[in-house]
Amino acid sequence: MLKDSFLFHKRLPLNGKLFYVRCCAHILNLLVHNGLSEIEDVINNVKTIMHQ
């Protein structure tokens, strides 16, 4: 589904010929880590409040 979505939005070079499942898992991992780093301050604030 992810490959189809990327292809639909024209986000894959070479029409997705180099897009493999392992690469997909790696991309998802990078996205999650990037997203968590964006909200790291919020997470730390919640942790601080919970420990008070």
Could you explain how this protein is built, in words?
It is found in: Nucleus. It contains three helices and no strands. The protein has 52 residues and is mainly α. The protein has a domain at 21-52.
**Counting H and I runs of at least 4 residues, what is the number of helices?**
3
Categorize the overall geometry: elongated
Span between termini: 44 Å
Number of strands: 0
Features:
mainly alpha, elongated, 52 residues, single chain, 3 helices, nucleus
Secondary structure topology:
Elements lengths: L1 H7 L12 H18 L1 H11 L2
Short synopsis of the structure:
This protein is mostly helical and 52 residues long. It is built from 3 helices and no strands. The protein has a domain of 32 residues.
